[in-house]
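Ticket #4471: complex job returned nothing on first submit. Input attached below:
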Amino acid sequence: MDEQQLRIFVDIVRQYFDRETGRLPEIGSPHLGDASALPIYDFTGVIGISGERQGCVYVTAYREMLRALLLQVGETDVADNNLCDLVGEVANTVSGNARIHFGPNFMISVPIVVKGSAQAIQVPRNIKAYIIPLRWHKHEAALVVSLQ
Amino acid sequence: MFKLGLGKYRTIIVLITLFLVFDVGVLAMTFLISKQIASDAVSLNLAGQQRTLVQQLTKTALLLEQDATQGIIDSSGQSSFSELKELIGTADQFNSTLDAFHQGGRMVEGRGKVALTPQDDEQAAEQFKLLEEMWVPINVELQKIKQLKSDTKPDLGPLLQVLVADNLNLLTVSNMLTSRMESLSATKATNLRIVQVAGISLALVNFGFILYFFLRQLRTSDRAVERAQKETEDILRTTQEGLFLLDTEFRVGLQTSQALSKILGISDLAGRDFLALLKPIVTPKTFETAKEYIELLLRHDVKEKLVASLNPLDCIEVSAAQPNGAIESRFLNIRFNRVFDAGKVTHLLVTATDITRRVRLERELKESERKVQDQMGMMVHILQADPSLLQEFLRNAIKGLDQINEELRTGTATAGMSAKRIDMLFRISHRLKGDANALKLEAIAQSLHAFENLLDGLRANPSLRNEDFLPVTVRVKGLYAEIHAIQDALTRVAQVRGVVTVEPPKPAQDPAIAALPFVHQWRNFAQEIAQRHKKAAELSYQGLDLATLALPLREAINSIVNQFIRNAMTHGVESPVERKQRGKPEAGRISVYVSDAGDGYLELSFRDDGAGIDPEKIREAAVRTGRLDATAAGLADMRKLISMIFEPGVSTRETVDEDAGRGVGLDTVKDMVARMGGRVRIGTTVGEYCHFRVQLPLGGVAANASIMDTNQEAA
Amino acid sequence: MIFKLMIVDDSNIIRGKISRTLTQHNMEIVATASNGEDAVKQFAANQPDVVTMDLTMPRMDGLECIRKLRHMKPDLRILVVSALADKSTAIQALKEGAQGFLCKPFSEDDLTDAMDELLGESHG
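Support reply: We reran it on our side without changes. The output follows.
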């Protein structure tokens, strides 16, 4: 169950990069992390999940990667607002596609974007989250899946 | 059955009979009336004729009279003779008609029957009587003339006298009689016609009733049929089961429930061959059996209830492709019930039910039962395991998993996971698996085994990508969860017991017991050996006063404890310097505890906090004494090795001295315990402790002497 | 009415169980046989009304035995008592003329219920 769902999330993110930039991100070695020690970079797009399983999925990235990504797609305005929009867009894509794959037993929320290592990200305590590091043009990002 | 039908149609049959009766009645009446009218016409004719006859009579008489006065008769005589004859004929006719009228119903000169006579009516009878009376004197004279010889010349005088006198009266009375009879006939005809009209009217009314009843009945039965049909339709449309009738040719009936198509996943079933429909959705063997089963129900004298268990279609799995491409698998139950008509099986009622939810639920239930069993089993092992060992295992397991996770984390995007790293993961897992097995935590051992298989698969893959480690990560998470589950369980157990350790609490040390002579002896014995080996020892005792035990048992325990003390002080307890380095008190601690286990066994616990049993040393000793060759020794597991310390001739001491080295001691303990029907268990951790537990039957020798076993292992 | 019963089964235990249960159920055990051949002999000698029949037996199996017995007495009532391992063999047995089937393992109530059903008036 977990594995299948993880693959779906990974594939969605990968396809996003592929479609927008024509270049697949490198997938790092997947591992586990405690709720207190999850990677949270400069900008994070979070979707909440409830229903059959509960928790959240988020994509977090450094400013540099988002900036490079924007420039790559032809956007020259790389102010924070646009960077927020971009990471929100990634989360949105994950959210939209996840709905298709997971069906009605998963309630998937509208994405929220968090700037900086804010406390706003509600990760379930006491369970270990999957961390899948992403690397694109030497920039680091991560997909984090924390589901009960 | 026939009776029932008659009942239903009784009204209509009565009405039709009445209708026929009326019709026949009217017909008969019509026939009667026409006949009557014909007869009456005869009577009326006759009545009218009487009047004419009177006239004729008078006229003929007058002619005869005239002839006589003129002497015509005298000269020729011919014409007078014919007139006389006519006179008599007319008189006869009048007489016979009178007769007919008088008696009624007589045939009169072939002119029909006289239906109507003056006797039918008082008034007519009176007039008739009057006519007769007037006729009497005329007739008297006529009869006189009739009786004369033909050659005699009649004397018509008296006749004419009465005729002339009564002629007018006769005419009047005849007229009155005729008209009276006419009016009588008319009345009778009218009455008959009224009866006829009434008959026809009754018949018509009756016909109306018939129509009314018939139509009403028709409508009622039509409505009943319609309602029944509607009910059947409603049932067939609404029921969640697939229902249909199967005829003896295995054909599906024309009416099926709406749910049927959905359940079987086949549309337009009515009239089709059921076997042909069944064939593609079940296995060939199920199909054959199903065919035979249906034949059995249709054509053989078997008890439906008693063969139901043979129904091969009571739970079949059918798969169908869904519109989205997914294959959906469902479970169906198809039952057959015979339908009888007049004692013969005409159809089978087939009921198809989708039992997917039930089957799934049953499976889930079974699965969860299995899980509960597993968990219960694990709980039992957890409770049986030495708590300190268990805690240690859990700590190690978490540490191991953390290590594995760290290996995963640090496998960078560029370098990826090398074969060396996978080997590392494998080793960690393998070690944990061994520990889990030793503690009989089979569920965890199995999970670790699956984890190793996964890693094996990855090792075989020459072009590994990081994503390939997703399942590894998933498994690691699962393992964390299992370890946490055990920790939770332990916490709960501890809460229930109100203590942290699961070991039974020991009674507080009783100074009186501690001062007993046998304790004193053991303590001295320990000190004595300690001194010889330049070690220090403290022995403490809790439990029973051995003096309360039977002599053989007391002696056995004493002997066993002495062997254990000797073993502990020579092998187990380290030198004071070494102990100090390890953070232990300089004096080795020996705890002895004897208790009645309550199950008919005496329990002896002997524990020292020495160096424990080092498996490597046993291996060396086994090879040195030639009990095992180097390969076998290398392969021997902890259990095997520990059991060897009980074998004669195996000592870990390289040099022999009086206390140890000859490899005797523990083997005698084993023999003694075995003889008495008890058993020995050993627990040890290298560098920490060695713990012997001996169980001896209180009531002498137990039936089956058991071999010792080990349940603990060095970390 | 007391029915006369013959028990045909190669298991001593099953024979004993059927015998004990049905003796208490107003039936008279007139014969027992552990194989088909013996069953045919016993049948001729004892003329039972009802037979319980195992299917897998040494020396003439249940199917053939049913055929022979039915030939000897067409209105004989036969209850097949067998495991459910092979439904199609059981169905064959019923086609040969047995009227009911009882699945092993069975409880005493299962057996008496099946007998009542087998000996009841009309069809199922």
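Residues 12-23 of chain C form the longest helix (12 residues). Closing as resolved unless it happens again.
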